[in-house]
Structure formats: C-alpha cells, structure tokens
Amino acid sequence: MTVLVASDLDRTLIYSTAALGLTMPDPVAPRLLCVEVHESKPLSYMTETAAGLLAELTADPSVVFVPTTTRTRKQYQRIRFPGRPAAYAICANGGQLLVDGVPDRDWRRQVAARLARECAPLEEVHQHLLSVADPAWLRKTRVAEDLFAYLVVERALVPDEWLKALTEWSEGRGWTVSLQGRKIYAVPRPLTKSAALHEVARRTGASTTLAAGDSLLDADLLLAADAGWRPGHGELADAAWTAPSVTALTTAGVLAGEEILRAFTREAARLGRLGA
Hints:
five-stranded parallel β-sheet
C-alpha cells in the first residue's frame, strides 16, 4: 500500500520568525531547526520534534512525501528538509511538477493549455493589480513562473473593501484571490494543487492520500485527499472552514506543524497495518 502525503509548506510545515506563534514562556519554548536560508539569513523553521517526525515519515518506503506549495521552484529549492529527499514536489500552486528536482515539461504544457482555455490572461490581471494597488501600502509586485501574480503589502493598511473589490473583479475572469500574511495572490482558478496531486497519485499508484494546508489555496488540496488537517491559524481557520474529511486543529503556530506531522505519521502507520 502506497500512501501519498501532500503538505503545504509555509505556515503549515515551516514557519518564518513572524509566524512561529510562540506564546509560552521562553524557558519552555521548543527547540527550533532552521530549514531555509535566504540571502545568508535564516528564514524558516520547524521544531526539532517536527523535523524528527518528518525524517521518520519519509523513511517509510510505503510513504510518498510531496511538498506542495505556492512557492516558485527557486523559492522551494532553498528549503532543506530532514529525511529522504522528495521524489515529487508541487510548486507554483500546481503549475510546476518537479520530478527528482526537475520540472516535468509535459505537465507544464497541460497546465498552460488549460489556463489558455479557461481564464483571462496573466498580463491582463497583472496590469490590473498594478493599476489599482495603492503605493501607500504596496511594497513589491511579482509574477511567479509566468503563471500568477502577487503583491507584497503592508497588511494593516490594505482596506478590506479594496480586497473585496479585487476578489469580485478576479472571479469574473476565472481567477482567485488569496491573502497570506503580507502577500496578496491572484491565481487562475484552474491552477490548483489538487490537479497536480491527482497526477502524482496516478504516477505512484497511491491508494490513499493525506494532506494539510492553512490557506484558501489549500482548500481544494484538502478536499481531494482521503484525510486532511488544517492548523488553528490561517485563512481557513479565520473562515471556520472545514469538511467531513478534514480535521480542524486548534493548535496554531509552529507547534501546529508538529501536530500535523504526528497525524500524518499515525495515519500512515494505521494504513500500513491495514494493508499488511
């Protein structure tokens, strides 16, 4: 029995300093392991316990661990996870499927064809973002993998009405808007993590899929899995979103990543016993 474990990364398995959510007294705070360095500075962390759980999970030959992220390939490849290297990774919200670190060209062609058929072009959406964003709170604009666009903003200064108007404008053109920390993403609706998940499951012959994620862009991933978990923070928690196959955790911050990995490990072991 092959179990596919697909997990979102930022604010699900790995956490920036700002997202750690350490509310306990300093002397009892968990030990942290840095798993990402950017421009010679530590950027993302897991607890040491979570790192050990991930190493244990990936050591199981019946488990296929698939990092699943909205990050670009370059951003993803900065991460150094403990344990066995992932044979598959889903980047750019499903737009890139990496096989042993190399982009799968056939998958990218399939994605491009579907986006051309079903939604407004990237250039139109990107230009709209530039035209309506306020310099008072806009810090950066980025286009990722020629697939989607995002803004880096001062979140507290972005009016809720502006975000609502952008969401309505985007929906009419086949795009989705998601707010994650200081980033506002505009992503084509057909560009999904779940589509890439199904492709990896087909290739590996996985009989069961497990998933975790915290943002609205992860909802389709969680629904596509046989069982899913979401942390007690993020867009999905803020919206009180859940589904029959999804466990809504109350734990928030970096300790949620630890709890998610415990759940993955328990469920993979249970399925292994059933398949034995």
